[in-house]
């Protein structure tokens, strides 16, 4: 089914975070397992997001969560707690993500026939600067920060659709993460699961749609029907 609008998760779905972040970790601490550290750092981020109560007027930036998480994960790996300026510098690697190879052409083709927009938990400033640097154009850049809640809160999806002027059945959420797609499905949106076997640097750790619970499964953005 073709939709009027497609909303995209970003980190992991469109952009590879593992390579640039693990590279930054390896530069900071060459003697540790940078891959394991990066995975632990990502897990720490999700734990922080799930424990926060946010609002539009009282918003904690994702970059601040990553910096705080970096300091804590250093302790887990037996490293000294870094100074804040160092933690911020290493955490800035989350602002230098790179697109998966299929993304630029796939998004361009999809945009020729539908509205495309981001719907990310990442900070608005990070999204704007990332895609400006990458030369990837959108009809709208939307993030959780605009709505005062992190995904998978239903307000994020409902308000994004309102901003785009479409009904839930006229839009699909595109993501590599089942929790994101399930939340979108719960409000009536279509769902497109994107397989990213290298998201965590090991295909055995990647998310799957083993039960075929989503409307479409693709390995390339250009495959979206």
Automatic annotation (TrEMBL):
GO terms for molecular function: (S)-2-haloacid dehalogenase activity. Its EC number is 3.8.1.2. The keyword Transmembrane helix does not apply. SUPFAM superfamilies: HAD-like. Keywords: Hydrolase. The keyword Hydrolase applies. Pfam families: Hydrolase (PF00702). It is an enzyme of class 3 (hydrolase). It comes from the Bacteria. Coiled coil: none annotated. Gene3D superfamilies: HAD superfamily/HAD-like (3.40.50.1000), Putative phosphatase, domain 2 (1.10.150.240). InterPro entries: 2-HAD, HAD-like_sf, HAD-SF_hydro_IA, HAD_sf, PGP-like_dom2, S-2-haloacid_dehalogenase. PANTHER family: HALOACID DEHALOGENASE, TYPE II (AFU_ORTHOLOGUE AFUA_2G07750)-RELATED, HYDROLASE, HALOACID DELAHOGENASE-RELATED. Belongs to the HAD-like hydrolase superfamily. S-2-haloalkanoic acid dehalogenase family. This is (S)-2-haloacid dehalogenase 4A. The lineage of its organism: Bacteria, Bacillati, Actinomycetota, Actinomycetes, Mycobacteriales.
């Amino acid at each position: 089914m073709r939709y009027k609008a497609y909303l995209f998760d970003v980190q992991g779905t469109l952009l590879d975070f593992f390579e640039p972040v693990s590279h930054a970790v390896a530069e900071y601490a060459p003697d540790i397992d940078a891959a394991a550290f990066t995975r632990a750092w990502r897990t720490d981020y999700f734990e922080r997001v799930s424990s926060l109560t946010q609002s539009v007027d009282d918003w904690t930036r994702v970059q601040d969560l990553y910096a705080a998480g970096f300091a804590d994960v250093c302790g887990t790996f037996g490293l000294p707690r870094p100074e804040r300026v160092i933690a911020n510098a290493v955490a800035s690697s989350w602002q230098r993500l790179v697109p998966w190879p299929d993304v630029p052409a796939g998004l361009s083709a999809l945009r020729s026939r539908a509205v495309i927009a981001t719907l990310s938990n990442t900070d608005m400033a990070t999204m704007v600067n990332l895609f400006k640097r990458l030369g990837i154009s959108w009809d709208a850049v939307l993030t959780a920060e605009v709505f005062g809640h992190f995904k998978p809160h239903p307000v994020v999806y409902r308000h994004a659709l309102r901003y785009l002027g479409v009904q839930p059945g006229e839009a699909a959420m595109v993501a590599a993460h089942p929790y994101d797609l399930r939340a979108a499905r719960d409000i009536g949106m279509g769902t497109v699961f994107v397989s990213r076997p290298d998201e965590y640097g090991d295909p055995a750790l990647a998310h799957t749609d083993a039960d075929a619970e989503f409307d479409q499964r693709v390995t390339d953005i250009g495959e979206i029907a």
